[in-house]
Amino acid sequence: MFSTDDTIVAVATAAGHAGVGLVRVSGPAAASVGFGLTARTTAWPPRHAVRVSVATVDLTADALATFFPGPASYTGEDVLEVSAHGSPVILAAIVRRSIELGARPARPGEFTLRAFIRGKLDLVQAEAVRDLVAAVSPAQVRAAAAQLEGSLSAALVQQVDSLRRLETLLEASMDFPDEGYRFIEPPEVHAALAAVAQGMACLVATGGRGQLVRDGARVVIAGVPNVGKSSVFNALVGADRAIVTPIAGTTRDLVSERLVIDGALVVLTDTAGLRDGADVVEAEGVRRASAAVDTANVVVVVLDGSRVMSDAERALLASVADRAHVVVRNKADLACAWIDGTDALPVSARSGQGVPALAAAIARAVSGLGGGDAESVLVTNERHRVLLARALDHVRHAAEGMATSGHQLPEEFVVADIRAALLALEEVTGRRTADALLDEIFAGFCIGK
Amino acid sequence: MPAADFDVIVVGAGHAGCEAAWAAAALGCSVGLCTLSTTTIGTMPCNPAVGGTAKGQLVREIDALGGLMGRAIDATGIQFKVLNQSRGPAVWAPRAQADKQRYAKWMAQALATTPGITIVEGQVARLALQGGTVTGVSLVDGRAFSGRSVVVTTGTFLNGVIHVGDDRRPAGRVGEPPSVHLGEHLRALDFTVGRLKTGTPPRLSRASIDFVGAVSAGVFHVEHGDEPAVPLSFLTPEAPRNAVVCWKLHSTSGSHAAVRRHIARSPLYNGQIQGIGPRYCPSFEDKVMRFPDRDRHLIHLEPEGLDVDEIYVNGMSMSLPEDVQREIVAGLPGLETARFLRPGYAVEYDFVQPTELRHSLETRRIRGLFLAGQINGTSGYEEAAGQGLLAGANAALAVKEQAPFVVGRHEGYLGVMVDDLVTRGCLEPYRLFTSRAEHRLHLRADNADLRLTERGRVLGLVDDARWDAFEARRARLEANRRTLRSTSVTAPSGAKVTAEDALKWQEVTATRLVEAGIPLEHASAGGFDLATLQTEIKYGGYLRRQDAEMRRALHAEFQRIPDDFVYRGLPGLSAELVQRLEEVRPSSLGQASRIPGMTPAATVLLNAVLSRKIDGIDGVTSGA
Question: What is the pLDDT of residues A392-443, one digit of tens each?
Fold first, then answer.
């Protein structure tokens, strides 16, 4: 419930203690709010940072103010950005003072909504802003920034153009039969469809990796009891804790942490509830642990280097053999009871020996997941992936129809598939969209962007 | 309300006017049909054919609603052909060559025998208005008629000017005076009026052409009708007869050189013609000048009737001077000695931007005034007839104070056409194409009755005879579906499958199943029964998917926008877009989204405002 023609304000940087914080004011009163904040009386020089002193009831702070006159601004409206020390207290005081001066607190995603409504961003870019704001790992930032610059849009436009060209030629054949020829021959249609399908399949394939970049790879520590799984878990979390947030839905049986390991976002899960014994609670724990292993992207198998390997451990190793995994020979500070020539990493969770190497091994395993090479356009948004996959289905359907009918599939059915594919792609590029979808997107924004 | 001379007055008796008069009369109204001459009712001033791609489907829709065109052409056609037979069923398009004189005579007779229609001979000069409502018409000769609705279908007559080289004369059709008064009157009423151009080719004497010689010399190719011929009307009980053949030839580089030599004398190229012509139907000058790398263009020779000598030179619409036209034609192989009957010409005429109209084809500016046909910027007999039927029916419904009859884009080409016109307006003469339809697989020639006849029946357009025939056809279709499901056949592999599954195989047709002894009923002459059955089963997957898409799309069509919605002041809408929206006054969000220049963001914003998701904008809607 908001209007789109008044002036809004919010802290644009993430909550928490950062060096510098940014308050953004957007709307017709942006300049005058700035005058009130800074006691400045002369016009703002466009797009130039000006040193100001912001006085509020509680405090006075040094700040840099930059005025962006619309439409050449992020939202397309007049925008004032005030950078100050990142203290939440200072930033909140600036926001409060702006509200006293006539601005209203922005709602989640409202700056981006305005940019979208004024044609400054297409849908893909709008969604990328949300991803960028929410990004916690360098890989996420790279992927979101690439989308913001429109590289996904550009990659899609290429497919959309190919399909449009095909559609045009096929339509011409159908609507102008008196010309007595086909504007495009069936084999060429088939080849073009196959080429588009291949291009789209590549994009869709990056979706798996994009998903990992966005949500984090699920890395599960597994092993028989008393091999030191929890110690390994704690060593990894302690050593590389960059950002740690509690994961909703974890049970007391499974402990998960979200952390950045060597630049990759992972959700690390310790199957700590797994102990021997057969009571009901323990059995449930075992069940959950094995479920976590089953759905993991990477399994870290922890073995006890000081004990001879058990049959259960051999079975566990065998079960992860054809999946992404890392084997840890823990308790490397104790006497080694076995050497089997495997690539097991010697680690001492207690002393910290080998933990950096383990982190690097996990990051390598994560980066090997999913399709697409690291430099390609990444589809990191689940909605994009689903729509791309749907479009790809339609294109493949048309190509298969051509193949199985010996190129006899009538043109209007080929076009029906092409149109359906285009409809899906245009939902990604934002040319045709439904309102419900936008509700979802804009509700997903952080305040301020 | 005092008694009027007529419930509905129709101005013009071309293809739009004839259907309009019939539809209004069928709905029980008294109709005054004004025509310049009682001898030119249902005239075909251009090509001697009805139907073709998208147009054939449209004629079937007109017929499904009870209209005249399909029956008229079946009764008077001289060659019948389904276009696009090498393609799929959604683009199969019936077309027929007409005997122009017989067609016009049939149409005049049909109107004369329709109860409630009075033919008024004379030229309408002005509309009678009271406030913002039309109350009748006055004629050039001083007569006046009162009417409660008026349908204007003046074709190319509004300020019409005919060009043959530098010879330009005011005319609606060759030899007929234009409607200058009415044209000026509409401009004075502030309607947005534009200027379009169309053209027609020269006519040759059939007797003077040695067809046999030209065919044996290999320069003409004979084109036969289909056997059996497929009719345009669902009511035609038997296959019509192909009475003539047509011929195909190619233009030569010599004729192209002649065009280039004299191009400065073409009113299209020397600035004499301002109106915009149709890109899909270029003049011969245009073909030669715009496609210099093509050394030949296709030309069809079509007889204009059984008892007339005229041959229509399809593909050679021209406005060059007569002497140049003669030189060009004489340079064509097989036509060296052909006698030139009359030259082709270009005609410029006024049209009213159809964004002035509601979906009912009533003008927003004047209540009770409906426009149909070329006055709305369209070209083609079929497009005119379709609009005439809708405008006539809606004029009658307005008299009866009933809700207008609107066909959705998902229901028929009628709906696609009207929505395109009132939403996008016209920059060039509008012609229907199948590619304009989002739900093309559904909008087929074979199922026009299944899509529309029931709606026509509810409205009162469909009489008992047509309704009975339709119900019988629907029963046959249902019986055939049951037969297919309950009959088993042996596959080449030896396995038993149902006939329904067998019909899904590429090489199996419904006709083949009938030949194999499966008792499928097929009573209609056009093969509609088997065509519908086969398409439904063979392409069932595609049709079901399109149905689902159709249902999704309908959502936005049901999101209504009030007539008095205020766009000015909505944030995020450019001044240009506000102006477009105010011109078009879309009746639904779906229509708004189809307005040229409408961005997704603007559509989203509009939807948000309509759903009152954004507060503070409520104030800008008045009385909604």
Answer: 999 999 999 898 888 888 889 999 999 889 888 876 665 433 333 334 334 4
Q: Looking at the structure, do residues B235 and B335 belong to the same domain, yes or no? A: yes
Distance CA B515, CA B534 (A): 14
Angle (nearest 5°) at CA B111 between B106 and B115: 140
Pick the CATH number of A129-206+377-430 from 1.20.120.430, 1.10.3720.10, 3.40.50.620, 1.10.150.170: 1.20.120.430
Q: Is residue B414 part of a domain?
A: yes
* Residue B367 burial class via C-beta count within 10 angstroms: exposed 0-12, middle 13-18, buried 19 and up: middle
pLDDT along chain B (624 residues), means of 10: 85 98 98 95 94 96 98 97 91 96 97 97 96 96 97 93 91 84 92 93 96 96 95 93 95 93 90 80 86 87 96 94 95 94 94 97 97 96 98 98 96 96 90 88 96 98 97 95 93 88 90 90 83 93 87 82 87 79 92 81 73 42 32
**Contact assignment for B88 to A178 by CB distance below 8 Å:** no
Burial string for A3-20 (b: 16+ CB within 10 Å, else e) reads ebeebbbbbbbeeeeeee
Q: How many CB atoms are located within 10 Å of the residue A160 CB?
A: 20
Peptide bond into B571 cis (omega under 30): no
- Domain of B493? 463-545
Gap from A406 CA to chain B (nearest CA, Å) = 10
In CATH terms, the fold of domain A216-367 is Rossmann fold (3.40.50)
Cα B466 versus chain centre, distance: 22
Cβ neighbours of B571 in A, within 8 Å = 3-5, 117
Nearest neighbour of B87 by CB, restricted to A410, A432, A433 = A410
Q: ipTM score of the complex? A: 0.79
Query: Count of A–B CB contacts within 8 Å?
Result: 104
The minimal CB distance from A2 to the residues B441, B603, B615 is found for B615
CB of A413 within 8 Å of a chain B CB? The answer is yes
- Which DSSP category does B355 fall into? G
Tokens 């293809």 found at: B15
Interface membership of B434 toward A (CB under 8 Å):
yes
* Structural domain A8-121, CATH architecture: 2-Layer Sandwich (3.30)
CB contact A119 to B (< 8 Å): yes
